[in-house]
């Protein structure tokens, strides 16, 4: 087992002191923070909602496991008591003495790092943070064996999360143990150090989802004109992705395909189109959406005609 020292800032009033906490496992520092996925300005209460959420993200409220008791002292962050006195992380997990937070997303995120500020007041003398992604098992990502006692606080930056990629669900749990007093307190607290107010920030990056092309058709029969040749003006034929691209601006041209087509919907800036001589009509659902239902059969050659406008 690797044993390393992790530096963290401990704040005493306006003074900042570097303290080394001996860890049981290597947790390297992240080199870049990235975009904010979610952040918390921890507040007193039963739960503490996120103060910032990233694109396509739903943040979970900060909350406690069943082993802990809420303590409300306004201005001192998200505070809890009831941590186990046993000097064992296994005991804290068994007792469900944890504070949790996390997020769900409609797009996959690559995690980068996390910043967190905290202190103890006769509460746990040691903590660790575990992370579960996409419903998988919890894995340790951080440990502190020497939790600072109030009025000191720890301000830990760039806890490395970069091995976690394509994350659409993440749950963090901070466990505490070795509390000298069962009524002692532990807080995840706000700070001005990270971004001016938030005491917990998770960073990462994502690729914005690629939408359909500006002009495309869909076809419930599944033909999608995948065998279509070029347009009659020589322009390239459509793509064969999930939405069938019409290949750019077209006007006064036709496109033939050896595939049948029915329940056709064309999305694009067009004013007159026909499928096998049948005019497409506006759906009324949104501008520039046209549709028609016709009877087709395998082996039929279908012709889409654009008589005016662009698709």
What's the structural blueprint in terms of helices and strands?
Elements: E1 4-12, E2 15-23, E3 35-40, E4 52-53, E5 57-64, E6 69-71, E7 78-81, H1 89-94, E8 98-121, E9 126-133, E10 139-144, E11 153-160, E12 167-177, E13 185-188, E14 200-205, E15 216-219, E16 244-245, E17 253-257, E18 264-267, E19 270-275, E20 278-279, E21 281-282, E22 289-292, E23 302-309
Antiparallel strand pairs: 1-2, 1-11, 3-4, 3-14, 5-8, 6-7, 7-13, 8-11, 8-12, 8-13, 8-14, 9-10, 9-12, 15-16, 15-18, 17-23, 18-22, 19-20, 19-23, 21-22
- How far apart are the termini? 63 Å
SS class: mainly beta
Radius of gyration: 29 Å
Low-confidence parts lasting 5 or more residues at pLDDT below 50?
A: 1-7, 12-32, 211-215, 219-227, 239-243, 294-300
- What's the mean pLDDT score? 75
As a percent range, the share of strand residues is over 45%
Number of helices: 1
- Give the helices and strands as they follow along the chain: EEEEEEEHEEEEEEEEEEEEEEEE
Helical coverage, percent range? under 10%
For the largest beta-sheet, the strand count, sense and barrel status come to: 14 strands, antiparallel
Count of extended strands: 23
Shape: elongated
Descriptive notes:
Strands 1, 2, 3, 4, 5, 6, 7, 8, 9, 10, 11, 12, 13 and 14 form a 14-stranded antiparallel sheet that branches. A hairpin with a 2-residue loop joins strand 1 and strand 2 (15-23). With 311 residues, the protein is mainly β. Helices cover 2% and strands 47% of the residues.
Features:
five-stranded antiparallel beta sheet, elongated
């Amino acid at each position: 087992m690797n044993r390393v020292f992790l530096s963290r800032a401990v704040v005493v009033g306006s003074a900042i002191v570097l303290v080394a906490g001996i860890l049981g496992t290597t947790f390297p520092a992240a080199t870049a923070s990235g975009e904010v996925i979610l952040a918390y300005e921890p507040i007193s209460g039963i739960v503490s909602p996120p103060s910032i959420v990233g694109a396509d993200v739903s943040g979970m409220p900060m909350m406690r496991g069943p082993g802990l008791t809420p303590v409300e002292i306004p201005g001192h962050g998200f505070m809890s008591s009831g941590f186990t006195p046993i000097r064992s992380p296994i005991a804290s997990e068994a007792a469900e003495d944890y504070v949790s937070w996390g997020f769900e997303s409609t797009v996959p995120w690559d995690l980068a790092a996390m910043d967190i500020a905290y202190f103890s007041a006769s509460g746990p003398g040691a903590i660790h943070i575990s992370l579960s992604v996409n419903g998988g098992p919890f894995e340790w990502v951080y440990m502190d064996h020497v939790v600072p006692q109030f009025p000191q606080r720890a301000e830990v930056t760039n806890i490395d999360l970069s091995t976690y990629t394509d994350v659409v669900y993440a749950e963090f749990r901070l466990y505490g143990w070795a509390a000298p007093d069962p009524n002692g307190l532990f807080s995840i607290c706000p700070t001005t150090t990270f971004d001016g107010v938030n005491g917990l920030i998770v960073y990462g990056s994502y690729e914005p989802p690629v939408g359909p092309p500006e002009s495309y058709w869909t076809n419930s029969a599944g033909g999608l004109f995948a065998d279509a040749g070029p347009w009659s003006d020589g322009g390239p034929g459509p793509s064969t992705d999930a939405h069938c691209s019409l290949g750019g601006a077209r006007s006064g041209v036709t496109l033939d395909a050896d595939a049948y087509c029915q329940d056709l919907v064309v999305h694009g800036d067009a004013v007159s189109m026909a499928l096998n001589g049948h005019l497409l009509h506006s759906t009324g659902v949104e501008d520039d959406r046209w549709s028609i239902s016709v009877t087709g059969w395998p082996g039929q050659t279908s012709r889409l005609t654009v008589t005016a406008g662009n698709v």
